[in-house]
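User: My instructor asked us to take a sequence, write out its structure as tokens, and then describe one feature of it. I'm not sure where to start. Here is the sequence I was given:
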Amino acid sequence: MKYTVESLRQFGIQVAEKVGMSHQDAETLLKNLLLSDMRGVRSHGMTRLGGYVTRIERGCTSATAQPTITMDSGAVFSMDGNNGMGSTIGQTPMPVEHIQPGQFYFDACYNPDKTQFLLNAEEKGCQVLNGLGMSLYQGAAQIELWTGEKAPVEAMRKELMDILAESK
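Assistant: Let's start with the prediction itself. The structure tokens for your sequence are:
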């Protein structure tokens, strides 16, 4: 049986809302699940919806979690996602008024290239960096650890960039 992307999106949104997610969060979740399926990454697509529902129903994941700042020392900032779904595209954990001009801000996310958090910091004249390099070099370190051979970092970088370009 075949379904349209739109019918799957609508179904998934209804399911997510039924277990307590807001409409906006449900839309974000379904966008991410369907994009994964369309890119051929089935392990992160619609097949995850049932597991997410189960985790929410069992209380393992919160359908309404809001990120909170757990530490802000001026130089270091830490955020707790409060056991939420993680679909926070377009949201920022740090209020704009807390961003100090001339500082350096890092976000471990790398898709999108610049999260709203990094865009806000850049707008205030700050230097920013996303987590692409961190992810790349963590992968390289894992390859070297497991194989004992030097990782092909440039080939890995190219593949990572190609995958990200496909998702846009």
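For the description part of your assignment, you could build on this observation: The chain is about 45% helix and 10% strand. Try explaining in your own words what that tells you about the chain.
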